[in-house]
Model the fold of this input.
Amino acid sequence: MLQLEGLTRRFGANTAVDGVSLSVPAGQMVGVIGRSGAGKSTLLRMVNRLTEPSSGRVIHDGTEVTALRGQELRDWRTDCAMIFQQFNLVQRLDVLTNVLVGRLNHRRGFGATLGTLFKRFSAAERAMALSALARFDLAEQALQRADTLSGGQQQRVAIARALMQQPKLILADEPIASLDPRNAQVVMEALRDVNRRDGITVLCNLHHLETARHYCDRIVAMQKGRVMFDGTPAALTAARIRDIYGVSEDEFDTAPEMTAPALTPAREAALPA
Ligand SMILES: Nc1ncnc2c1ncn2[C@@H]1O[C@H](COP(=O)(O)OP(=O)(O)OP(=O)(O)O)[C@@H](O)[C@H]1O
Done:
């Protein structure tokens, strides 16, 4: 169970996240939605302490995450894998080595230059990385440089790398915002698959309502740093959206920053072959 208690982050006079309290049971897939500037990234980054809260607490299975220091904090960051909008792969390295990088957190005091990295991993770790790649249909690309892959493939490599950490949680910050609809769908399916099959809790920031509805068990809607809705996709009706954001669902979804809508059968049929 992940608990956020009164989590707040101020940047000067601006309160980016304002007293957010949530309890997330292990194994849940939560979509955090909101328009640009709502505080979604800041909220996610406070969970693994990439951003320090101004006040409030994060507690995981009884451990106060917000009090961790040193090695314990590093261990917590291994438990929480992060997926970024821009994939964050080492472009000049091959795909397999990028995935193996996910193992580095498991080695204390491990030092190696990127060039010598591959040789430092055991046969078992390489097999684990290959099987993570195969799971996302990327085994054939294992020895290609990361920069030869499409965005959707790169994001799946990032998910495979995250799995190498053997995390308890995945924090995905706009994982599909740079992808076309087809790739967005494949990446969301990969995230849902690790949630369902591996039981990993997923917190996923999304701009697009339909994507959150389709893939998540629970939706948290933020505005101006606050949680305005927390419930099932079915409960987030068009009327609730209008109440919260003062716009229709279509207007919410077509804001300029929302570039990667989910593929519905109707949308898929409309795509060029
Ligand atoms: N490092 C920072 N320094 C100052 N202000 C910040 C910083 N990070 C975020 N903010 C501000 O906090 C508010 C929330 O930003 P945040 O990035 O969390 O929102 P978001 O919902 O993730 O938006 P987006 O979808 O555009 O990424 C914004 O007003 C933003 O300008």
Observations:
- The first strand starts at residue 2 and ends at 11.
- The beta strands are 2-11, 14-24, 29-33, 55-60, 63-64, 80-84, 169-173, 201-206, 218-223, 226-231.
- The radius of gyration is 19 Å.
- The chain has ten helices and ten strands.
